[in-house]
Specification:
heterodimer; B: 6-stranded antiparallel β-sheet; globular
Chain lengths: 196, 549
């Protein structure tokens, strides 16, 4: 039967870690609405995010799943484009306020540190600011959107060219054939006899 | 799909509410016996080419469940507590032709002889309605075999399997790495990992494609028709008889009864929202343990003030979900569990309850890692892995392909105070009351979850995992297995239907789905739901032919 891990009312029911993200749990309907939104792949500009917000969100995303020279991160995946779409949903309007305030707060903290904005800070200073706010509801909500934007089907705006799947090591083909992994490829002869 | 259309004034032999695991089988069997059948299904008729692998749509937005018009479900731990919105799992089922057989993982364990007579063997359990079934494994075995061959089940016998009258029609699907490491652990501990029976085709069968190992069984519809849902198997055959009409997007509001206490048909809203009536010689309710409850309770009348078929008061009572407990492991080499069906091996050495454990409970442990990328990235990594930054990224890249979960599927006890009831405070688009779940785990069920989690952890360690971490044991707040809410029994004071699924209170009303269960089994109830449906269909046809409905 269906796995008990899967919940239909949100991200959150099964694991203790996600249980803390109740702020987002209360804002699930926007995800439902998102299913019906247009899924064009246009990457020209942002629909809902202001240029400043997009810049900050992009920098934030790059600290959640950082880029490096080996594997793509949230930035290569274009997670910010997914976040932009999420912001554009009317049903998300109530939550957008909190996210916008959170992004503005990141910029304000950066300015207090002498930078033009959050994106202008060196990454280690960005990390320090994010540590200051990582217990706030904004942080978990924004982090969750970045993760979804990195791994959701590219038709939702992020996971550009399957960058998130590349990071995971997922081949993303419509079908596969055995052997699937190292252990079934190297199974003992006697265990295969057992089920013959 | 081209199908027979019955007119509005036509009275048919049977109207069946629900087209899922049970309703689909009943429709095909009764139509094949030359009875006229109308099936009413609340959800849409989606075909395989409408299903998708889009995780955000399916798992996060519930695209498969067609929830659009469902009211808020509520939950409470006891009647003394206020109802609160159930933000957890809730009563989970799919609306749509084929029901939840479309998007389930298709594990097809049979029950065993002990499941039907466990109360006699174990004795009473305080605070429960623990009871024997009025039927035995031996009576049901021919119908289990019928399920195997009619819909296509892949598998191979295991060392402690119940007797079977015919081999599996199909060999097991190829083993996965999860199954290979479970075998390793089991061998090291002197246990047995056997091929997990699946309602998924390992080879072409009955004109259907074999499994292409796309890795999207659990929660997804099969685009290849390789999963043996009723949508892919019996429903097209029912329609092809020319005696069965499946009406999708039709929500039944009420089973109607006459002055002599017989069912006359049902009232329903069609897809345009128009109220319609379908008359029938007999009504069969196969809407699942939650919706069957709602329909029976909403069909109250002066003659049936507590709800239809509810003189015992047991409609909605004794709901069981099956407990679960899981342990994760990370291995040195890739397992790539995102490929293939959910689980290919299961350990059944702990199936029977054992007084030495100090509690009642038994189950099976399978191996799986059925997480798609978003669900994995948001909820699976060990607690000491940061949730953002370079270490998080390294863990994402490592654990997705290298992890597995050993997952226990367990008994749940039938507790009289665990109920599904109508919730007048929340209503659906039709104004019907929603559903409230009142539920608290029996102490033995909680002990079983902890005990089995420990066994899963031992297996994982013995299998050679380089890192082992456990899922928290949490109280049940809903589930996909909706069992026991219209239980079967010989005594009308204590059960809703008799051994042939006939309502004790209404001679031409039959109720056949997970609600008929007396005990929960060890998880994976769909095989038994379908065996019951094949058996019920045979008896119902017999009654109909001999004017006993």
């Amino acid at each position: 039967m269906i796995d008990a891990q899967l919940t239909r009312r949100g991200f959150l029911a099964d694991t203790a870690r996600l249980g803390t993200a109740s702020w987002l749990a209360l804002n699930i309907p926007w995800l439902t609405a998102l299913a019906g939104c247009a899924r064009d792949d246009a990457r020209a500009g942002f629909v809902a995010l202001t240029p400043a917000e997009a810049k900050t969100m992009r920098a934030f995303a790059a600290r959640i799943i950082p880029s490096d020279d080996r594997m793509p991160g949230a930035d290569e995946a274009g997670a910010v484009y997914f976040v932009d779409r999420a912001f554009a949903m009317p049903v998300f309007a109530e939550s957008v306020t909190g996210l916008r305030a959170g992004l503005a707060d990141l910029d304000a903290r950066a300015r207090a540190a002498g930078a033009a904005d959050f994106a202008a800070l060196p990454s280690r200073h960005q990390v320090n600011i994010m540590r200051e706010v990582e217990r706030e509801p904004f942080f978990e909500a924004a982090r969750t959107l970045v993760v979804i934007g990195t791994f959701a089907d590219p038709s939702h705006g992020g996971n550009k060219h399957g960058a998130g799947w590349t990071l995971l090591g997922l081949e993303h083909r419509p079908s596969y054939s055995a052997p699937y992994g190292w252990y079934d490829a190297h199974a003992d002869v006697d265990s295969s006899k057992r089920v013959a | 799909m081209n199908q027979r259309k019955f007119g509005e004034r036509d009275s048919v032999d049977f109207v069946i509410v629900g087209s899922g695991a049970s309703g689909g089988v009943l429709a095909k069997e009764l139509a094949s016996e030359a009875f006229d059948v109308v099936v009413l299904e609340a959800g849409p008729w989606q075909e395989a080419n409408q299903f998708t692998h889009d995780e955000l749509a399916v798992e996060r937005e519930n695209a498969m469940l067609n929830l659009a018009f469902e009211p808020v479900q509520t939950i409470r731990g006891s009647e003394a507590e206020p109802k609160r919105p159930n933000t957890g799992r809730g009563l989970t089922y799919r609306r749509g032709v084929g029901g939840s057989s479309v998007h389930f993982a298709a594990n097809y364990w049979r029950f065993r002889p002990i499941d039907f007579k466990e109360r006699s063997k174990w004795g009473p359990i305080s605070g429960t309605g623990f009871a024997d079934w009025p039927i035995t494994y031996e009576e049901l075995e021919p119908y289990y075999t019928k399920v195997d061959w009619e819909i296509g089940v892949s598998g191979a016998p295991g060392p402690s399997d119940p007797p079977r009258s015919r081999p599996y029609p199909l060999p097991p699907v190829p083993n996965k790495s999860s199954g290979a490491v479970l075998e390793r652990g089991a061998r090291a501990l002197g246990l047995h990992a056997q091929a997990a029976p699946l309602a998924i085709l390992s080879r072409q069968y009955d004109g259907r494609s074999p499994c292409l190992a796309c890795g999207h069984c659990s929660y997804y519809g099969c685009e290849f028709g390789a999963k043996s849902s009723t949508l892919a198997t019996v429903i097209p055959k029912a329609v092809a008889t020319g005696r069965c009409e499946v009406r999708a997007e039709c929500t039944v509001s009420r089973v109607e009864t006459n002055a002599s206490g017989r069912a006359t048909g049902v009232l329903y809203w069609d897809r345009e929202g128009k109220e319609r009536r379908q008359q029938a010689r007999a009504v069969i309710v196969a809407a699942n343990g939650a919706e069957t409850t709602r329909l029976l309770l909403l069909s109250a009348s002066p003659a049936f003030p507590q709800g239809l078929a509810n003189s015992s008061g047991n409609v909605g009572r004794y709901i069981m979900f099956n407990g679960h407990a899981g342990v994760f492991g990370r291995f040195e080499h890739p397992l790539n569990e995102y490929k293939g069906p959910v689980a290919t091996r299961v350990v059944h050495d702990f199936y029977d309850a054992d007084p030495k454990r100090g509690f009642y409970g038994g189950g099976g442990i399978d191996a799986r890692f059925n997480y798609q990328p978003i669900g994995f990235a948001l909820g699976v990594l060990p607690d000491d892995v940061p949730t953002w930054g370079p270490e998080y990224k390294r863990a994402l890249a490592d654990y997705f392909t290298h992890s597995v979960r050993f997952y226990a599927h367990l008994t749940s006890l039938p507790v009289a105070t665990n109920t599904v009831t109508l919730d007048d405070d929340h209503r659906d688009r039709w104004g019907r009351p929603g559903l409230c779940l009142t539920y608290a785990d029996h102490p033995d069920d909680t002990k079983a979850k902890h005990w089995f989690r420990d066994r899963a952890e031992e297996l994982m360690t013995a299998a050679g995992a380089s890192r082992v971490w456990a899922q928290p044991v949490l109280p049940i707040d809903g589930g996909v297995q909706l069992l026991g809410t219209a239980r079967m029994g010989d005594d009308p004071r204590d059960s809703v239907v008799d051994r042939y699924h006939r309502a004790h209170d209404v001679p031409n009303l039959f109720i056949c789905d997970g609600s008929s269960f007396v005990t929960s089994g060890r998880g994976q109830p769909t095989m038994t739901i379908q065996a019951l449906a094949y058996r019920a269909a045979e008896h119902i046809a017999r009654f109909a032919r001999s004017d006993q409905i």
